[in-house]
Amino acid sequence: MQEQTLAQLKKLNDTAAVYPQDQCVHELFEEQAAKMPDKTAVVAADAKLTYRQLNQRANRIAHALIEQGVGKGELVAVLLPRKSDLLSALF
Q1: Most buried of 53, 60, 80, 86 (most Cβ within 10 A)?
Q2: Three-state secondary structure of the chain
Q3: Looking at residue 1, what is its pLDDT?
């Protein structure tokens, strides 16, 4: 039983993939959002968001940071509970 469970976990975690080395994660996400805007992107304790909704939230946060003077390459601390807002802020 334990070996079967371990084999199932290994299979589920076999998610290795090759990603473009010339793009950042947020760029890859935006491409995905453009391809399938109405598909579910995240299911969190407080919300279920489509790629479009998640991208819109992330862009609102990005623009607010820019308005506050945050520039490219600057670090921004994020302290949020594990809900949909956390993922939006990370993007």
Answers
A1: 53
A2: CHHHHHHHHHHHCCCCCCCCCCCCHHHHHHHHHHHCCCCEEEECCCCEEEHHHHHHHHHHHHHHHHHCCCCCCCCCCCCCCCCHHHHHHHC
A3: 64
